[in-house]
Amino acid sequence: MTITYTNAKVYTQGKFVKGNVTIRDGVIAAIGAQSEGDVFDVDGRMCVAGYIDIHTHGGWGKDCMEDTREAIDTVSRYHLYTGTTSFVPTTMTASPADINRALDNIRKYDGKYSRILGVHLEGPYLARKSAGAHPPELLISPAENSTFVWDNADIVKRITLAPNLGGAAEFCKAAFAAGIQISMGHDESIDDEIYACVENGADSVTHMYNCTSRPSRRETPKKHLGLTETGLIDSRITVEVIADNRHVPDELFKMIYKLKGRDKICLVSDSLSVAGMPEGDYYLGSGESKQKIRIDDGVAILPNLNTYAGSVTAVGKMVENLFRLGLPIEDCVDMCTKVPAALLRRGDLGDLAVGKIGDMNILNEDASIFATVAGGMVVDKDALKIV
Question: Can you tell me the distance from the alpha carbon of 83 to that of 61, in angstroms, rounded to the nearest whole number?
Fold first, then answer.
C-alpha cells in the first residue's frame, strides 16, 4: 500500500523542507513534490521521524519483566499511543532464570504495535551502593556469570554495566564484538575504570545524574572523576537523560545540553509500569517486597520516603517540554530519534529519508503530537487505549 502525506514541513537529514512524504509498503519511497497512492493532508504541520525509547520498564500497568503476552502487548500499545514507534523493553535485576523467562516472552512476542528493537538489561551488573530500586542481593559482576547474556545475544541489544565491577572492561570488549551496546551506570566507578570500558566499546551513560558516580578517592589522596563528570566531558560518550523536570530539572538539563549538544544526548523515559495511569496510589512488585507508590504532579514518588520512584513521562512529552523550554525543535527531535538509532546501530530508523522505515510523528506548532504514523499508516489511538 502507498500513502503520501502532503503539505508538510518535513524534517529530513538535519533540515526542514516543504513537501510530501510518500511511504510505500512501510518504507519511505520519496520526499519531495510528488504524490502517489492515498493522500493525507497534514495541513502545514511538521513531519518528523518516529520516536525511539531505549530505556523503558513498562506502561499502562504492565512491566517488561512479566512473562505474559498481555504484558508486552500492553506496553507496546502504550508506547505507540504516546508517539514512541520503537522501543527497547528494559529488565530489572533478577535471577538469571527470571531474566531468561522475561527474555523468552519478549522474543516470542509477535504484536503489531510499537516496534521492539531488542532488550536492555538494566542489571544484574550494577554496584551495590548505587543499586537504586534494584535488589542488592541479586547483583553480580560479569566475571561471576555472563553465560546467560551470550545465550540471549539474539535479543539483548543493550546492557547497563557498572565499570568498577570485576571483568567490566573485558565484558565490554566481548559485548561490542557481539553487537551489544554497553551503557555505564548504577556505579561506584573512578575515571580509570570508566576509560577502560570506553576504550573497549562502552559509549553511553544510563540516566545521567541518577545513580551515576561523582568524584571520589580510593587508596590514595588523589581525587578521581566519577561517571557523571566523565560522561559530561568525554565526547565519545552519549548520555541518557530523563528530561521530565524532576529526575533532571530543566536548569540542570540546560547545563548538560550546553556541554554535550544534541548529538550526544539521548532522551529516555525510564518509565515504570504505572506510566500512563491516572494519578493516585499504586504498588510496585508483589508479596513482601511490594512498595506503595503514588503518581502525583507528573511523577511517581515513594510517599513514605519522600523520594522519586521513577518516571511516568513519555519521550514525546519530553520533546514538547524541551521545545517549550526554548530548544530548537530539530535538537529536541534528534535526541529521541537519530541519537538512539545511532546507539543501536539502526541505520533504517531515526530519520525521514528514502529507504528508511516509514515511522513518523506529525507535530503541531507547539511540538505536541497531532498524529503518529507506524509503517506508513496513521495510528488509530482510540483503538489502542486500554486504560
Answer: 18
The CB density around residue 382, as the number of other CB atoms within 10 Å, is 7
Question: What is the rounded end-to-end Cα distance, in angstroms, of the chain?
Answer: 31
Residue 346 three-state SS: coil
Residue 287 has pLDDT above 80, yes or no: no
For residue 338, which amino acid is it? K
What's the CATH code of the domain at 230? 3.20.20.140
Reported as type and span, the H/E element at residue 303 is: none
- Confidence check: pLDDT of 72 > 90: yes
Is 133 in the same domain as 99?
A: yes
Averaged confidence pLDDT in the chain: 95
**CA 336 – CA 87 distance, rounded (Å):** 11
Beta bridge partners of 266: 240
Residue 270, pLDDT > 90, answer: yes
CB within 8 A of 11, min separation 6: which ones? 46, 47, 48, 49, 329, 330, 333, 352
Q: Is 384 among the domain residues?
A: no
How distant, in Å, are the alpha carbons of 15, 37, 376 from that of 1?
28, 8, 9
- Confirm whether 348 is domain-assigned: no
DSSP state at residue 221: S
> Domain limits at 37?
2-48+353-379
Residue 374 lies in a domain: yes
**Is residue 386, in this structure, part of any structural domain at all?**
no
Rounded to whole angstroms, how far apart are CA atoms 198 and 189?
Answer: 13
Reported as a single tens digit per residue, the pLDDT across 26-65 is: 999 999 998 999 999 999 999 999 999 999 999 999 999 9
Q: Is 200 in contact with 236 (CB distance < 8 Å)?
A: no
pLDDT digits (tens, 9 = 90+) for 290-331: 678 889 888 888 777 677 778 999 999 999 999 999 999 999
Kindly report, residue by residue over 126-154, the tens digit of the pLDDT: 999 999 888 899 999 999 999 999 999 99
Are both 35 and 175 inside the same structural domain? no
Q: State the pLDDT at residue 133.
A: 84
The domain tally of the chain equals 2
Domain with 365 in it: what CATH number? 2.30.40.10
